[in-house]
Specification:
By secondary structure, the chain is α+β, with helices and mostly antiparallel strands. 52% of the residues lie in helices and 17% in strands. The protein contains 7 helices and 4 strands. It has helices at 3-11, 24-38, 72-84, 91-95, 123-137, 139-155, 160-178; strands at residues 45-49, 63-69, 100-107, 110-119. A 4-stranded mixed sheet has the order 1-2-4-3, sandwiched between helices. Helix 5 (123-137) crosses helix 6 (139-155), helix 5 packs across helix 7 (160-178) and helix 6 (139-155) packs antiparallel against helix 7 (160-178). The radius of gyration is 16 Å and the shape is globular.
Length: 179
């Protein structure tokens, strides 16, 4: 499989949930270290988020990374260099996002990492960390989330955007019930 075919497979990869893999934190650390090495001084913090950051939680096997920048113009300036560093993105998709930028890495026809660039300390930053921490500290919510993700993955197997949208109400409610 050539690089273009691998990318196309990754873009259109079906949604699938896998059992927790203890290598996920290490995969995050390796990518965090690579980003810090390639872009010294560009990130104020880099955090592991998403289900792969929650011990024991089943997930899509994609490492979600939250990278904090000082302002969105910094995120925009990093887009091209990140694409040269084995990431790819959709400029059209990013144009629809307010307060964040999104990129992905892939290998062998599947997504391996999602990189979310947001302003460090912003509402977006705080909410993503708060949800991760809520799942880490409340096993009942984590189990309920995993059960729902399996239902959504089956329902939206070929529609990643619908799968992501389905999670939105659950995430908002989990954050609301935490306050």
């Amino acid at each position: 499989m050539d690089e273009e075919e691998s990318l196309n497979r990754a873009i259109y990869e079906e949604v699938a949930i896998f059992p927790y893999d203890e290598s996920w934190p290490l995969l995050f650390e390796e990518e965090r270290d690579r980003l810090l090495h390639l872009f010294p001084g560009s990130f104020l913090a880099i955090e592991h988020i998403g289900s792969t950051a929650v011990p024991g939680l089943s997930a899509k096997p994609i490492i979600d990374i939250l990278a904090g920048v000082d302002a969105m113009p910094r995120a925009d300036a990093l887009m091209e260099p990140l694409c040269q560093a084995k990431y790819t993105t959709s400029m059209e998709f990013n144009a629809s996002l307010a307060g964040r930028r999104w990129l992905m890495r892939w290998a062998e026809g599947r997504r391996t990492h999602h990189l979310h660039l947001v302003v460090y300390g912003s509402k977006e930053w705080q909410q993503r960390l708060a949800f991760r921490d809520r799942l880490r500290t409340n096993a009942e919510i984590a189990v309920h989330y995993e059960q729902n993700k399996r239902v959504w993955a089956a329902e939206f197997r070929s529609d990643r955007e619908a799968y992501t949208a389905a999670k939105g109400d659950f995430i908002r409610e989990a954050l609301r019930s935490a306050t």
